[in-house]
Amino acid sequence: MQDFLFYLLLGLAISGLTFYLNKGAAKSINQDDEGFTNLKMPKLYAIIGVLGLVGGAIFLGSFLVVEDIDVVTTVISLILCLSILWGLGIICLLWYFNHTLKFDEFSLEVVNVYGKQTKIYWQDITFMKFKPFSGLLILKDENNQKIAIHQHLVGLSAFTSMIDLKTSFNSEELKMPVSKPFIKGF
């Protein structure tokens, strides 16, 4: 019975988080004063990132307090758990603080997870593919310049509408899990 409750709660939590992230992608976004639409990652990424870093620190601290532990077991446990917790935390924080998408009727500008900024014009896009496992939409232009756009950007549905308007690609054929928005300003 305990296992059933655990898996039930785990399933509900994952379903709730997925619903929250997909709802954010369908959110309508207004244009700024310069006519650009700016999309950022949801705050949930920052929360998960901080929880991962704090969880790793607590885990590390608990090994410093506990006595009479086998050294090999301790080292293996620390490496595995810290790489998972801190790895997840750092990656989520990098996505939250770095990844942005800024677009208007002429171009789109993406800052990737590492802070590298790339600009592509709508008419130059020659390739577009959604990768469901990574959750990234990959775009390439005539110069083979590549950008990746994460599916959890808040307001991404406004971007998918622009794909339909400004390129020869069809956003529905990309099979991204994004609902159509209530577009303001287009």
What does this structure look like?
It is a single chain. This protein has helices at 2-25, 43-65, 71-98, 156-166, and strands spanning 37-40, 100-103, 107-111, 117-121, 125-131, 136-141, 146-150. It is of the alpha+beta class and 186 residues long. It has 2 domains: 25-41 and 99-186, PH-domain like (Roll), CATH 2.30.29; 48-94. Helix 2 (43-65) packs antiparallel against helix 3. It is elongated. It starts with a helix and ends in a 20-residue tail after the last helix. The chain crosses the membrane at residues 6-23, 44-65, 71-97. Keywords: Membrane, Transmembrane, Transmembrane helix.
Mean model confidence by pLDDT: 85
> What is the distance, rounded to the nearest whole angstrom, between the alpha carbons of the first and last residues?
53 Å
Overall structural class, as computed from helix and strand content, comes to: alpha+beta
| CATH level-3 fold name of the largest domain | PH-domain like
What topology, given as strand order, has the largest sheet? 1-2-3-4
- Strand elements, count: 7
Main sheet, how many strands, which sense, barrel?
4 strands, antiparallel
Which radius of gyration do the C-alpha atoms yield? 20 Å
Residue share in β-strands? 15-25%
Q: How do the helices and strands follow one another from N- to C-terminus?
A: HEHHEEEEEEH
Gross morphology: elongated
Tell me the CATH architecture of the largest domain: Roll
CATH class of the largest domain: Mainly Beta
Q: pLDDT under 50 segments (min length 5)?
A: 182-186
Number of helices: 4
**Helix fraction bin:** 40-55%
> Please, how many domains?
2
Transmembrane segments: 6-23, 44-65, 71-97
Keywords: Membrane, Transmembrane, Transmembrane helix
